Amino acid sequence: MAEIVPYGDTAGDGMVQLSFTLPVPADGRAREIGLEFLRRNGLREPQIVHIGAADREMAFFVAYAKAAHGVDPEAVQGSEVEAPALGFTEVNALIERELGRKIVVVGAAIETDAHTVGIDAIMNMKGFAGDYGLERYPWIEAVNLGAQVPCERLLREAQERSADAILVSQVVTQKQVHARQLTKLVDLLEAEGVRDRYLLVCGGPRLSNTFAKELGYDAGFGPGSTPSTVAGWIAQELIARGRPV
Amino acid sequence: MAEIVPYGDTAGDGMVQLSFTLPVPADGRAREIGLEFLRRNGLREPQIVHIGAADREMAFFVAYAKAAHGVDPEAVQGSEVEAPALGFTEVNALIERELGRKIVVVGAAIETDAHTVGIDAIMNMKGFAGDYGLERYPWIEAVNLGAQVPCERLLREAQERSADAILVSQVVTQKQVHARQLTKLVDLLEAEGVRDRYLLVCGGPRLSNTFAKELGYDAGFGPGSTPSTVAGWIAQELIARGRPV
Amino acid sequence: MSLDLDRGLTEEAFALADSIAAPIMEFAVAHTTVTIERTVARLFGVDGVDELGVPLPNVLVDALGPGLPGGLALPLAEACITRNASPQQVAEALAAGDATLGSDPDVAPEARELAARLAREADRRIVAQRGRRDELIAEHGDPETPWLYVIVATGNIHEDARQAQAAARAGADVVAVIRSTAQSLLDYVPYGETTEGFGGTFATQANFRRVRAALDDLMPEVGRYLRLTNYASGLCMPEIAACGALERLDLMLNDSMYGILFRDINPERTFCDQYVSRMINGRAGIIINTGEDNYLTTSAGHESGHTVVASTLINRALALAAGIPEPQIGLGHAFEIDPDRPGQIMEEWALALLIRELFPRCPIKYMPPTKHVTGDIFRTHAIGSMFNLVGVATGQHIQLLSILTEAVHTPFLADRLLAIQDARRVFEAARPLRDSLAPVPGGPLELRAQGVLADAVELLHRVDDAGMFDAIAEGWFADTPRPRDGGRGREGVAERGPGYVNPFLELWEPQLAGWASG
Amino acid sequence: MSLDLDRGLTEEAFALADSIAAPIMEFAVAHTTVTIERTVARLFGVDGVDELGVPLPNVLVDALGPGLPGGLALPLAEACITRNASPQQVAEALAAGDATLGSDPDVAPEARELAARLAREADRRIVAQRGRRDELIAEHGDPETPWLYVIVATGNIHEDARQAQAAARAGADVVAVIRSTAQSLLDYVPYGETTEGFGGTFATQANFRRVRAALDDLMPEVGRYLRLTNYASGLCMPEIAACGALERLDLMLNDSMYGILFRDINPERTFCDQYVSRMINGRAGIIINTGEDNYLTTSAGHESGHTVVASTLINRALALAAGIPEPQIGLGHAFEIDPDRPGQIMEEWALALLIRELFPRCPIKYMPPTKHVTGDIFRTHAIGSMFNLVGVATGQHIQLLSILTEAVHTPFLADRLLAIQDARRVFEAARPLRDSLAPVPGGPLELRAQGVLADAVELLHRVDDAGMFDAIAEGWFADTPRPRDGGRGREGVAERGPGYVNPFLELWEPQLAGWASG
Ligand code: B12
Ligand code: B12
Ligand SMILES: Cc1ncc(COP(=O)(O)O)c(C=O)c1O
Ligand SMILES: Cc1ncc(COP(=O)(O)O)c(C=O)c1O
Q1: Across the A/B interface, how many CB contacts are shorter than 8 Å?
Q2: What's the pLDDT tens digit per position in D467-489?
Q3: Which residues pair with D252 in a beta bridge?
Q4: Model confidence, pTM
Q5: Checking DSSP bridges between strand A165-169 and strand A219-221, what pairing results, if any?
Q6: Number of inter-chain CB pairs under 8 A, B vs D
Q7: Cβ contact (<8 Å) for A10 and C156?
Q8: ipTM score of the complex?
Q9: pLDDT averaged over chain D?
Q10: C269 Cβ contact list (under 8 Å, min separation 6)
């Protein structure tokens, strides 16, 4: 397939909107500095449509410009987790039929992260947006350890319960703290030589499946994920891996 | 001076915000396509923070990323029109003292453009944001021809009134119609061999001084311009050019 | 939400508006214009252009000569009879230089009959489209108010159609195709599907049809009737109204003064044209939308609320006089006070509520902030959201959505999407406010509304005394003075002479409920 | 704007809250904690860290040993006397292994006197800062309400100071420096100016001083008093309150349950700590801010309004019991119902008005939408603008501004600017709404407010019956069950034994108006 470019007013115009702050005063020279900044970053026909003073020596810009490059969607690898479109009942039936035993899942918001609403949405009874959480699945044993759980403790719990999958939530991303903490868990699993024993899954609003895989996870779930998708993926994956009962 | 980069959360982080629409469905592959689009346009560490369906085959993205290039403000040429910071009284006094006669100014919104609020703000009695318009200046004779004035008519009026300056407003910019119409006027003046007789000034919300100069104008006034700045610049420029009385 | 309005004052306001409308109507019914005559041609089925691209209705009316003696209907019908041809064939022959417009007294009675028959046929087509609309509404459902009204303006009718569909999928109820700059100054209606325009797309009958079909196709998918809009105002009001009637537009911008004030069209011309165009809109079941919002772009919004109110009253009187019933009179007003002005939101709320209460049966149309928004698209978006709140809390009927890039460019696909999403959210989230909050008696909002009404009545008194033509010449509306004999298109106005025949007027005028009594 | 609230019901609500607070206060006055004792050290002037980076107040209290026999004041004073040294010198010597905490009965009477004198000195410093605040307000002026409250959260105190200044120049009235993740779980207060933090910057006394100075410097330029805020809640409530008192913070987040519910801190620990920290806040003239907004992040906003109301009543009762007068009790609540829920804006308006009317003398703090906003920054910005409208229309006192990137990252410099500009505009534009609109009696908004109040009273009854510890263990607040003996920091709680001495309590407790009677 051919390259596509952004669609603003009409097909093929390539228009993108930008906003940014430069450490210069919002004076008569700001516009040209902003335009030059955009040109240097390869943007074509830039227009600055707003300049506001964000401080004495700080100018906030709103701009429109044409992107110089398109993208060929066919050539792009990677996507969100592809899970079977199964509901609560189907997933349970699948586990019962194919595995014949409960799947054990241990989850937590790890290290410094205290945001539990995301992992709770996936794991707790109540679930998310009308979709029941894993705790409610008769064929899943779900243990949610809550907030700020050190990696060491999470691993210990997983080992003690012979978990099939470890679920990790990371919400705070400032200064890449999530990447560091997620990597810490992978390192720990590898150091203990148990990485292959678990499906390792992470989730959070700033995570993508591709990024999760780069970090060494089996899957990553982004914003708006639902429990049934997660459950469906885990069940499917365990079955595919032919995990012994 | 050194290069500067955008300031998002902290100095030097280079963060910019973008939004754009790509003609792809807002499905599980959209995020990676959006990220790849940003990377291909040279943006670093792109994050897609929102994907919305703008149509069946249209996805709207909001993104943050780091700009790959900074800009050296010192190296940037061009700026808004630099006019003396004179008020109504000073400008009149200056004209009286240095030229000793009224300046004649003819203005219009030309060709297809019917937006007169901008040129009225500069020329009519009432003015703009509490700053009187040129008509009120005792030492300026200001003739506002209004909307949708053909270039030919504007030139004829300028000639008949022996104008010193021609003021042109252009507001509609879709498909570069303003550039075409502004160029038409310059071409006409040059064809008639009278380009040098007039200070040629344009204005409008999407115009900049630099762009105006590229098109062959003496100055261009952007959004928020005030009558006294325009009057001050015209007076100063006529004096500098030593125009005979 | 309800204001404590002085009944005496509101009755005075309506009576004054009727009195102001009367002399205008007297002028209108005594005159015709080139575009009114071209409308006859169009409704007789004449379409297409000659080899120079001149529309055939123009070719016919040009052939009629200055003064438009007797109107086009009879000479055209005579030519049809003499040549045993359709009006279209006559027009084509005329364009080719093979025919003249007959003035053959022998066939006159027959011609009158033919003209009357052609008019009845046209009327049936119009009424059929009206019926079709009713059917489709019954089938697909009518959206809740405020209707979400968006514009498309790419210049290319095919892109417009695509974006109209995208908007409808996102939740738009009404789609307007903005016209290319300066079309309103053309003394003809362009022809065919067009793909080049600036700031908008040409209003042509074929373009109407193109987008109409795109929306009709989508109704089963979106599960509601989708309305289409275009602009009548300009030098061709009745012709465009006729195109709209034939192609089942649902709303049309049709203001009795817009052309005068904002396009420098001659006042006499406009008053004749608006009358006939409105008669057609009325017959077609089309909701007209007036353009009072525009006043606040050339005058200061917080000072000119009363001119908006006065104008809506006059526009309504003139619409009733053209036979349009109140449920089709979409009076316009706007959220257009400088947002940096202290108290702005309260003042906007007051005006919106005032218009709502003055015209409880009219599908009033609320226009978004435009003039005081800037390239700060975040600010514009937030101001637009406030506009949506006021719209739903005061029970507006048609809400033209605010676009975050209003001060930048004609709306991008995604700009419109953001507008629709905001309106949907705010309308649902704030709908119960209308029954939840009431103006405090004597509070700032109620006082503001009462003050604006009082000022409007005062202005109406002055207009009534001066007469409408003089009031306009004085610049009392939109701060834009327009003399009665100035502006474009006056040469196209002619007295309806004693022999003047217009079978459409014969058909429709008697049905008017008697404009003088409003 | 005023709701027709049932006076009987509101009085019942206040009485129930007092009754619920009583057993908590009984527990609090009978216990001390490690951080309460460290607070004594801090107020005695002890600061700094040992060579391992352990804060000297911790070194001292660790030396006291488990059970905190008798409290720190006497042993420390005794050591001072025996060594003829200041508390700081004693602490340094202790850290170096050169000293022990004395328990020398000979000097006991002298030590009691020294302790009392040191406490009076500390009190004078606190009162002096309070006086300085009053002076500066008199000199530079106090902003109109709603105050514009923004957060900075870069992790680096110097960037924070710079951004605080930028925000103040743009119009912010209150600046909060958000703490680094998980600081509240540290059982010590970090030391010195810090430049590394995640999601925020460490709360240290030096950091307080750094931003305080940045804001003080700017007051002449911006022409108003600039308020500074930080967080007391966590494992070190009274210590941080002491630092805040000494560095002239103006507001402090201080919730009687936040640590329990959202940081899994032991309930007994928190109830003791909140009591002493509030006593200090009260003395320092600092406005406390409670954190009811957080409930709506773990519970559904439209279902849990009554838990917010119940909690504000309890928080108020506990604040009064700690000697804080109403003008310093900044009860928190939030605009946190799902914006896609029909009627959301009406329901938010109802809750905001209810809180306003229940606590007319409290500087109530209104928290922005956070949980239901998304990466669609345009939508978030518009929702924030609506929050600003409701804030000013219902007369909120402190408005924590909504940031368009709430769901994305801690606020960028420009994000905060956009928030401030929106708030300034909306506050000015909508201010007169408060006197313009009133709830329709029996309308949806009034019914909603009355319903939430009734549910709150019902919940208070249940809490009163069960007792607070059990109510929390049941998960009645924030849908988060916390057992009395669970959570962090319980080992740091000890009974105030018979020999317990705390000269600050001796100074401040008798001034309390008698908490049991509210
Ligand atoms: C609620 C909340 C809190 C609550 C948390 C309560 C609790 N018990 O969780 C409280 C008030 C305690 C809090 C505190 C803080 N927070 Co907070 N908080 C939020 C908020 C408002 C909502 C998060 C939320 O609940 N979303 C709803 C859930 C359902 O969505 P979700 O997490 O994305 O989860 C979904 C998916 O991502 C996925 N998912 C998530 N996890 C997992 C795991 C697995 C295994 C799978 C499969 C899927 C999955 O499935 C879920 C359902 O679809 C966000 C802002 C926002 N709107 O996003 C800020 C936010 C996350 N917080 C932030 C910060 C910085 C903090 C603080 C550090 C300071 C502060 N600003 O107050 C503290 C300290 C927290 C700490 N130590 O970690 C920042 C993070 C910035 C960044 N990107 O680095 C945010 C973005 C706000 C901001 N703009 O500053 N916070
Ligand atoms: C008012 C208005 C109208 C009024 C005009 C009334 C009148 N008599 O002027 C009406 C309703 C008639 C109108 C019609 C149309 N408009 Co219009 N209109 C606007 C609007 C809302 C405000 C413009 C304005 O008055 N600004 C206030 C003045 C004071 O600002 P200004 O023009 O920038 O002028 C300042 C400076 O630029 C400078 N300046 C300007 N000119 C000059 C000249 C000189 C010599 C100097 C020194 C300085 C100077 O000084 C002024 C004072 O500071 C804008 C949206 C917006 N907010 O910008 C759309 C807008 C300009 N219109 C637009 C369009 C497309 C149209 C139409 C084609 C269709 C439509 N959308 O309705 C028609 C046809 C017009 C035509 N043939 O040209 C588009 C243009 C898109 C683009 N960039 O191409 C805009 C941006 C709206 C949009 N987003 O779609 N419009
Ligand atoms: C009533 C009315 N008619 C027509 C138009 C558009 O006219 P034109 O095509 O001249 O821009 C407008 C635009 O604002 C209007 O308000
Ligand atoms: C009352 C209260 N205290 C403290 C905090 C911050 O605590 P921490 O530093 O644990 O994130 C918050 C944050 O929302 C709060 O609402």
Answers
A1: 132
A2: 999 999 999 998 889 999 999 99
A3: D230, D288
A4: 0.95
A5: unpaired
A6: 35
A7: yes
A8: 0.95
A9: 95
A10: C33, C235, C259, C487, C488, C489, C490, C492, C493
